[in-house]
């Protein structure tokens, strides 16, 4: 990949930049070392100024680093929520700070807007585990069985899907179909968790998230030994033996809500590292013990790359209209379940 000018030559930390980013610094000073702020602040100031000039918004996922999440985001949250926010704005340009399938979701819901991702290499092991052709073959093998697909997939997969789901609503979506069997794609661990919550038989695909699959039950037990009384919460994309050891299992938004409602003295969130950093900003009185599993794809998104993306309108997400429309239909069916 070509190194951009923004990446090669750091911007200057001036008194004007310091003033422009003072509010962000006050918010982040407990999670970002003082020595790092003069590096981040000039990019934060430049990005926020350029957003206004471009009539652009930044949609930032929970797994982005704090300087991005709290410094430049117009909307922050989980992937579907971001795309929905993007569709409701009058911005001309959407910059998705996350991974490619999330940018595709934003494009699906805002087809006529310019949707950018700062690094085309920001992929996902789970989304890459299955293709639209794989889904077509599964449907041939199991005729008449409806397909439920996790939104953490590419548009071609969702275009072959009867209905999408999130980790938060997966059980509700599965049971909404009123059938005895469904094909559930592509996360096998999420599927196994859903299977414990419903009598519907799930036909699973062997896909996993490379971040969540690395956690182990032994690691959870080690946390309890090292930090007596610690509260442990995990995402359902983790292996079943991990979920059996924790105090609470929930989606990304569910985990955040749980911390806010319970206010544990000490907590570890068994998910991507940066999420703990970002939630810690909201709850400074809670002691967050950070897990060490980083998503290498999320970390491809940096402040310099975001600035480059806005300046040069790179890299644009394009989808065939037919694929986008069919993928949108599967999302709309899911949202209809939520409205009922």
Task: Describe the overall structure.
The protein has three domains: 5-125 and 298-312, Rossmann fold, CATH 3.40.50; 127-208, 3-Layer(aba) Sandwich (Rossmann fold); 212-288, Rossmann fold (3-Layer(aba) Sandwich). α4 packs parallel to α16 (303-312) and α7 crosses α17. The chain has 17 helices and twelve strands. The protein is of the alpha/beta class and 340 residues long. The protein is globular and about 65 Å long. The model is unreliable at 1-6 (pLDDT under 50). The strands form three sheets. A four-stranded parallel sheet has the order 2-1-3-4, with helices on both faces. It has a four-stranded parallel sheet with strand order 6-5-7-8, with helices on both faces. The protein has helices at residues 5-8, 15-20, 22-28, 37-54, 66-69, 79-87, 100-109, 132-141, 155-158, 170-176, 188-195, 217-226, 240-243, 252-262, 273-282, 303-312, 321-339; strands at 56-61, 75-77, 93-97, 114-116, 147-150, 163-165, 181-185, 201-204, 231-234, 248-249, 266-270, 287-288.
**CATH architecture verdict of the largest domain:** 3-Layer(aba) Sandwich
Structural class: alpha/beta
Portion in helices: 40-55%
CATH level 1 name of the largest domain: Alpha Beta
Measured by DSSP, the beta-strand proportion falls in 5-15%
Globally, the shape reads globular
Quote the distance from N terminus to C terminus: 47 Å
Domain count, please report it.
3
**CATH superfamily label of the largest domain:** NadA-like
Specify Rg, calculated over alpha carbons. Answer: 20 Å
Mean pLDDT: 93
Please give the number of β-strands.
12
Tell me the number of helical segments per DSSP (H or I, 4 or more residues long).
17
Oligomer: single chain
Q: What fold name stands as the CATH topology of the largest domain?
A: Rossmann fold
Low-confidence stretches: 1-6
If strands are numbered along the chain, what order do they take across the biggest sheet?
A: 2-1-3-4
The helix/strand series, from N terminus to C terminus, equals: HHHHEHEHEHEHEHEHEHEHEHEHEHEHH
Q: Let me know the largest β-sheet.
A: 4 strands, parallel
